[in-house]
Amino acid sequence: MINVTVATSSKSNIVVSQISWSHRLSLSKNNNTQTFTLTIKNTDKNPLYIQVLSTGNSTNLKSSFNVESGVTLLSSGSSLTISLNQQFNATSIGSKFNFTILLFHGTSVDKSGNILDPQTLQVAKGSFTIVQ
User: Fold this and answer.
1) Distance between CA 131 and CA 82 in Å, rounded?
2) Which of 42, 44, 68, 111 could disulfide-link 74, Cβ–Cβ 3.0 to 4.6 Å?
């Protein structure tokens, strides 16, 4: 478990904790799916809109992925656990992926539900290898 406390500005405070993923992803044991999970707590006095993105590339640069959550309103003092799922297939066995997890947050959204002027925070950077 990794606990990260981030004061992103004088306006908002976010605590990100319990970041997890399979470092050695067994396709047969995990239904061909890598799951990135993290808990976010809004310690600010104002509600915040949040969105999480995980993006990665294989070290041989033959494969990449982007998986993101929907935009969610997180009330002041509330916590939320978000899981992002990325599917892989047998052609990925033996590949190593490097990835980054980003958290976008802001105080308002547009008519389409996108966060306006989001602040971006890198909450994790890591790697995993895919096995049978």
Assistant:
1) 25
2) 42
Measured distance CA(55)–CA(108) in Å, rounded: 24
Domain coordinates of the chain in residue numbers?
A: 4-131
**Beta bridge mates, 73:** 49
Topology, domain 4-131: Immunoglobulin-like (2.60.40)
User: By the 8 A CB rule, do 46 and 107 touch?
Assistant: yes
Per-residue pLDDT of the chain (132 residues; tens, 9 = 90+): 444 444 444 455 899 999 999 999 999 999 999 999 999 999 999 999 999 999 999 999 999 999 999 999 999 999 999 999 999 999 999 999 999 999 999 999 999 999 999 999 999 999 999 999
Query: At which residue do the structure tokens 């969610």 appear?
Result: 72
Distance CA 130, CA 89 (A): 9
Written as one letter, the residue type at 54 is S
